[in-house]
Amino acid sequence: MQTSSFTSRSSAGTFVVLMLAAVLSAAFSWHAKRHWQVESAFFSESIRVSQRYANTLRAKSPHLFIVFGGSTSKASWIPSILQDEFGVPIVNFGLHAGFGPHVITELAMREARPGDTVVIAFEPASLARDTIFFPTSGTDFFLHEKGLSFRRGQFFRLAPTHLVQYLQGNTRYNLFMIMKRLRRMKPYRYVIDDNLRKDGWLEVNERRHLPFDPTARPSRPIHLGKAGRELILAIRDECERRGVRAIYAIPPSLEGNPNATSAYAGFLLDILQILPVVRDPLLGCNPNPNEFADTTQHPLRSGAIRATRSLGTALATDQFWTKEELSRLHARRIDADALSISLPRKIESIPNK
Amino acid sequence: MDFSDLTYWILFASGVASFLAVAGCFRLFRSNVPGSVHKSFLVLIGLSALGYASAETLFTFLFVSAAAYSSGALVRRMETPHARRIVLALAIPVLFLPLVWFKYRLFIAKNLGIDFTANLPLVLPVGISFYTFQAVGFLVDSARNRADFPSFVDFLCFESFVPQIVAGPIERRSGLLPQMRSFRFRWRTSDIAWGLRYIVLGLFFKLCLGDNLALCHPADSHGNVFALWLRNISFGLRIYFDFCGYGLSAYGLARCMGVRLTQNFAAPYSASDITEFWRRWHRSLTNWFRDYVYFPLGGSRTRCWAFNILFVFLLSGLWHGASWNFVLWGGANGVALVAHKFFSRRLGLRLPRPLARFLLLAFVFYAWMLFDRTSLPALLADHALLFSPRSYTTSSLRAFPGTFQDPFVLSCFLLPLAGLVLLAEGFCVRRGRNPYAILLSHPALCAEIFLIFQLDSGHANEFIYFAF
pTM of this prediction? Predict the structure, then answer.
């Protein structure tokens, strides 16, 4: 093919131009990820808030409960209520579940000190995988939080490929952000001043249409996956090494199907083989859609208070599930034809967003 | 051999670094590295890449290569054309045997009603459709040109040349073999500079356009004809940018090594008619079928010229996949080509250029629907929707944005970006230049590099043509 008059004939010029373009583009990506990733900025600030709260708690109680998991735990349990009503000094280091359990664990476990109790609160879906997977959002957040840190963590290792991913902007995200700015919309659905409380609780007060069907099919069994099991074992071993107690608590989500408790009981039986499981009678299920906000994982204040009191009762009195109890609950599956659900029939009308 | 995968570049760089280490040892003894060492390393890199893909890939390739080379050596010794034809008649089926076994056995069995065991793993060796055709071309050309027969190492360099082995272009003996004979690992700055340009353009096509168009490709039209057209258009653009991206990257990498491959695409969507479209789309395959099937059948010089064209395109469709929809796609293109030749050449009819282009694009994007939908019932339903006048209503148009699988904004950005790229190609084509001249200019390359960094789809999509 003939060369075009549009193109430069200087090879050296080409090398310089391409190299410069690559370096500047990479620098732009780095800057954009560090300063314009609204989700990372929000959850970074949530870690700072939780750290400040932890410092104030440690002044009164030397040993804390460190909760970490996805945003379900972040939104469901209110640390100040647990402290004030139940005397349980708890600090919530829950993050966005999309960061992946390994990144969340790596960051939260740095806060645990000898004598503390870590309350692992990952959603069952996060621990159901058989293969280890580090989502890009998680590695990006880790780099945002820790910078260039190519060292081997306890639960998560940063690899050079993660740095390459960090230098790449996501199409959907970038276009969404441009659209939001052009339409003067909120960059992120959560805002620090509106949604992040001083005790680290994520208060979600925006209601959206939720998928909720009382006649949905019975939940499929959920089990601890191979990768999830390895992570839980690693956390237990590290806690033993550091003199930290480790327990598991299942955060509640909107579940209208009565067989959901049976499914979650099965999951908790898997966890029980490794760690004690907090005897929260909600068993990960809240069937009331009026107590949920923007997703089936994020409760409104009323739902969070219910979940907090349920957890607080169990933690304050050191109640844990036994194998027999969970086995009975797991065995109790209701025939699909004989579903009888006592659910609120009136679902408050909400704006369709 | 996925250019968008970092592992590929690491493996390739490792191979080159190994050669440089060996070359360094030669330099210690103040001697030049023999050409055979250069070529052996090239073969080693190619075979390593195939072996890295899978053991089946490597062994199948070695079988096809050994069969092609030994048949070529044998046919060269035959004195009479009749004897040469017999050797070809025996050898070519042997070369096609692995392709038929891996790619078509289940299709054949299903259509013959044979309950073929489903327990055998269906692992398609990487690149088999491409290097098999390349080997057959080599064999036929060797029968025609008996004087000049390469050494086995030269042949392996030709057959396993790493940039093009997996997804083409399907090279000819006359084009690539002489370059392989004189191949050395030379690092000419001009070649590397041009090669890098093509690699950047190829990655831009693949990563920014091809992969992201996959995101806004609706999974289902939801009974909306406009969504169906969008699906067809986004698929047609996606397959172009994906495949052309691969070809450009392959061309660029080969150019870095001082080797000139065939450019498989020449802005096909800038064509004015279907004949020109097929001169610009996947040119190496089109030319292969022309030279080894169409011409031997008599080409356009016989009364059966229409049958010849149709036959070639049916075969071409089948080459793409072991499914009837691919055959239909090939057949539709064959019919369109026959119709064009009949009306334009035999009857001398000429349409105004804008109308001709509109009809061409409408047909091509319609035909991609045949390519994309592997389920015949779904294809029939799509046809019913597409060709029913009642589908084209204002209410369908209003409902159209709601059918988007991905947010509207994605399509509103990507489709215009793709359109801009195609306009740049068309601009160059109309001026008789390299269709990618504008896209290979420094300002365009800077923009492409920036977009490569900013438009990561988040999904690692394998090159579509790897499946063939």
Answer: 0.85
